[in-house]
Amino acid sequence: MGRFGNLRVRGSSRWWSLLFASLFLGPSCLWAQGLLVDVREDHDFRLPRPIIVVPSPRPHPHPEPPVSYRIRQLAVNVNLVDQIAKVQVSQSFVNTGSRQMEVAFVFPLPYDGAVDQLTFMVDGKEYEAQLLGADEARRIYESYVRRNQDPALMEWIGTGMFKTSIFPVPPGAERSVTLRYSQVCRTMSGLTEFVFPLSTAKYTSQPVEAVRLQVNIQSQAPIKNVYSPTHSVQVARPGNLQAQVEWTGSQLVPASDFRLLYDVGDQAVAASVLSYRPDSGDDGYFLLLVTPQLPTGASEIPRKAVVLAVDRSGSMAGKKMEQAQAALLHVLDNLRPGDLFNIVAYDSVVESFRAGLQTVTDETRQAARGFVAGLYAGGATNLDGALKAVLTQLTDRSLPSYVLFLSDGLPTTGETKVPQIVAQARERNRVRARLFAFGVGYDVNARLLDKLARENFGQTEYVRPDEAIDDRVSRLYQRIGSPVLTDARLEFDLEGLTVADGAAVNRVYPREVYDLFAGEQLVVVGRYRKPGAAKVTVRGQVADNSLTLDFPGQLVESSADESYAFIEKLWATRRVGEIIDQIDLHGKNQELVDELVQLSLQHGILTPYTSFLADDQQPLGGVAEHRARADEALNGLAQEAGREGFAQRLAKDSLRRAPLAAPSGAVTLLDAKQDRAVTVETVRNVGARTFFLRGGRWVDSRAADTPEAEITAVERYSPGYFELVTRHGPEVGRYLALEGQIVVKLDDRVYAF
């Protein structure tokens, strides 16, 4: 990665006693960030920042500010019943400064009538709250911003607010703040949306020690799709009418608000379509969520065939073999009665548990456990022979068939040439078996495993040397163990579309034909050229029966705001992964290299091949130089094995299968040579935009090519500064809340603040 210029990380030189304790519930629900504000007119204050990037040639000591605080814990509990949310937010904070804080709690509201039964307490004592209209709230916010020269509050200008009476916080004291209320959440595009402002907690002097967010959804109709576009949540489904969502974190500085979408329906498979089109002259973006109904009994889950192939070459000796054995036992214990299975162990010699697939019974399961217990490591690696033994056993195309293929090294005996191994595996796979290849450790030929997975309808899982094999295999099998709809295909029909218009959608990811599993959700993104009413058709197999279901969708002509801008970011993330995959497996071409650079620049998706964009000395507008540097860096894909080869394939697959878009805040980059993530403080994602630090200014990527003479200067905190927020909406406030000088494109003009 290129150098990052004269940057350093340090604390803020000015602080203020402002604490965020409540929530941002977006355009679909309630916008309600809570703040503790030092209301004394003679006190200057700023939001505390745990880390601030500033252009400076050398660091200097920073004294502890007299007024500061840290958030210790943040707990959010939500009961969401048929769109009515009952919310409790609990937050504890400590006054780490040397002075007493005199604070009032306020939180903004975007519209009237959303909140009922509001209660606010400090250490169990209830405080009264007063409602202020949007105009009065704007006046208060603008006065804070002007007086304290702090742009952070720009994020919330334009909303009404509740405000409580004043209470003290002595130095060193800890206070527990609780907010309770009920609200009605809005429904958009058939989905109910809940949004919580985790990003408000980024204004704290130290990382938040613990964050826990729980949402319990209950419905009178079966709950189908449950999806967070911002956080990797855990979703439990005790039944069709309930879903439990949880996200936890520790020692973090939240940068993105939490968003949750869900819908209901009675179909065996539910689908919902969201669309986003920021520019009516360009292709729009869509997101499709598909979830099968939870089976009510084992008889609803079709039989399947599973073959487990385990590498027992000499390099697997010791702990790796013990973990591999534990993984095999987990899968054996979770096979369903009537499933077909076998185990293939390979080194120089290939050995099967039994000749041909076996039906799962108590007897065969116990015998297979004995076979696993007797495995030992030694010998070379006949990878091609193992694939032959596995794939030739699978002969019944009516059964969904899965291969879990584990390898920790290179093919060293039998056929060792990659093209021949891949071609022969493809030819032998006559039943369309899904091959899941596990690459264990840095010594695997990662490109070979990727090619095997792509040609055999599966995916690759990479296990680092310090990761547990059994845990990774168990997690995958838990996901795929109960197929509900197999060989699923998606079709889009658009009202009024003609043959001359071409396909309704394009560049759809993932590209594969899908299997849908119990408890799993399929997330598909793509582009569309023409807007209008659409019909989504899902075709597939349920056991021995064909299933065809239709769902309505709307592909919008234009989007009025950035509520669904995450769809564009998620599509760009997966498209970047797809481009790298195509270059890796089929070689470079100039169009793909150019698109990779363009998407990385526009969306802040930094890869090992575009890391030079993080260098604040690298001009943003140097297209030819960008292309040359990316082209050179892509030569690193020649590393098929070793730490770097392993890490590059791991990074590529994480982009191809990304479940959500990159969050707001500083960007994370993979250092492929060291196989570690690096936080890049010179690139920031803010909503739908990406800003790069150049010449001491945060420059919007959309303004990268703008000559200095065409940039309109606007004085910060002037009437024109605030007028731009009024004219362009709350998204602009988020951009202006960045610390430091900003260059941003709004409509067709570029402004500098």
How do the strands and helices of this protein lay out in sequence?
Layout: E1 7-10, E2 19-20, E3 23-24, E4 31-32, E5 35-38, E6 52-55, E7 69-81, E8 84-95, E9 101-109, E10 115-122, E11 125-126, E12 129-132, H1 134-148, E13 160-169, E14 174-184, E15 187-188, E16 191-196, E17 208-218, E18 223-227, E19 234-239, E20 242-252, E21 258-264, E22 269-276, E23 284-292, E24 305-311, H2 319-334, E25 340-346, E26 350-352, E27 358-359, H3 362-373, H4 383-391, E28 401-407, H5 418-428, E29 434-440, H6 446-455, E30 459-463, H7 469-480, E31 483-494, E32 505-509, E33 514-517, E34 522-528, E35 532-542, E36 545-555, H8 565-586, H9 590-603, H10 623-633, H11 642-656, E37 665-671, E38 676-686, E39 689-694, E40 697-700, E41 711-713, H12 719-728, H13 730-736, E42 741-746, E43 749-752
Parallel strand pairs: 7-17, 24-25, 24-28, 28-29, 29-30, 40-42, 41-43
Antiparallel strand pairs: 1-6, 2-5, 3-4, 5-9, 7-8, 8-14, 9-13, 10-11, 10-14, 12-13, 15-16, 16-21, 17-20, 18-21, 19-20, 22-23, 23-34, 25-26, 25-27, 31-33, 31-35, 32-34, 35-36, 37-38, 38-39, 39-40, 42-43
Helix pairs in contact: 2-3, 2-7, 4-5, 5-6, 8-9, 8-11, 9-10, 12-13
Q: How would you characterize the overall build of this protein?
A:
The chain has 753 residues and is α+β, with helices and mostly antiparallel strands. The chain starts with 6 loop residues before the first strand and ends with a strand. It contains 13 helices and 43 strands. The relative contact order is 0.10. α8 runs antiparallel to α9 (590-603). The chain folds into four domains: 7-264, Immunoglobulin-like (Sandwich); 269-298 and 484-555, Immunoglobulins (Immunoglobulin-like), CATH 2.60.40.10; 302-481, Rossmann fold (3-Layer(aba) Sandwich), CATH 3.40.50.410; 565-752, no CATH class. A hairpin with a 2-residue loop joins β35 and β36. Helix content is 22%, strand content 37%. Strands 11-10-14-8-7-17-20-19 form an eight-stranded mixed beta sheet, with no helix packed on it. Strands 24, 25, 26, 27, 28, 29 and 30 form a seven-stranded mixed beta sheet that branches.
